[in-house]
Amino acid sequence: MKYYLGIDGGGTKTKFTLCDENGVFITSSIQPTCHYLQCGLDGVTSVFNDGLNDCLEKANIQRKDIANVFAACAGYGDIEEDNPKIEQAVKKALNPIPFQVGNDTENALAGSLAGHPGINVIAGTGSIGMGLNEEGKLFRCGGWHHAFGGDEGSAFWLASNLLRLFTRQSDGRDKKTLLHSYMKETMGWTNDSDMLKECVVEWDYDRTKIASLAKHVSILAQQGDIHAIKLYEDAAKELGDIIETIYHEIKEDKVVLVSYSGGVFNSGEFVIEPLKERLSNINVTLIPPILTPDKGGVLLAMKQDNLKITPKITANLKENN
């Protein structure tokens, strides 16, 4: 029996998923982020080593039993000269297993559309889009560093704008809404300036910690706060811009399938409905993801090993999604 490992390395966590040659789920492991700019190259090796060994122990198999690995690393490909360094860091952990390193957009796209051409947009800690045309050419848009206002529509972007709205309401530049009182009560801020103490001083404006505040945008939207709802509409506009840009690059004469991944989409209709409206002027169909990004990594590992992907394999991968 052959086994395949898909690794989905994002800005917050890294998920390892092990499946057999029939696409049947065997086990998984969750580890910290493997983004090399956050954890360092030694951190990449450590994360991959821990995740692999955890899966091997749970499945009671050896490295030689794994036929192929697709290792998705957030940040891979952003700075071309760093790619060999990331690959070497991954090799230290996975050797001698055959593997390929890619950006986390690649497995997200493969998973969301089960390997078919189309477009996927990620809105997790950060945001980025990837498209694949019928000829197998990839197109990428977005993913610029959050420090410059990039990662539009992401959890970090939502959280940063949430804090901006809090400060505007604190000053009286905007009328206070539920958002202001909710954030003070939920975060335990006695004074409004406690936001700076916690987020800037104590957290050192840590990207992952700031992004975690995006969950409050969802809660506020559910409670009817107009500013939170508007934030999702603005996020949908930004994500739609990414999708439309890729759509025009793909230049297909038929309907292009579009899907999505990342925690921002857990907010459901608050972001999906305005995204559908934003995309109504181009020839696309927005569909829920078929497979999760980690399963997309398994799919890419299978393809690299020249395994024919049958409907049965896809169906098996979809279970325990």
UniProtKB/TrEMBL annotation:
* Domain ATPase BadF/BadG/BcrA/BcrD type residue range list: 5-300
Protein origin, superkingdom: Bacteria
What SUPFAM superfamilies does the database record attribute to this sequence? Answer: Actin-like ATPase domain
A Pfam family it matches: BcrAD_BadFG
The residue stretches assigned to a coiled coil in this entry are none
PANTHER family the record matches = BADF TYPE ATPASE DOMAIN-CONTAINING PROTEIN, N-ACETYL-D-GLUCOSAMINE KINASE
Q: What is this protein called?
A: N-acetylglucosamine kinase-like BadF-type ATPase
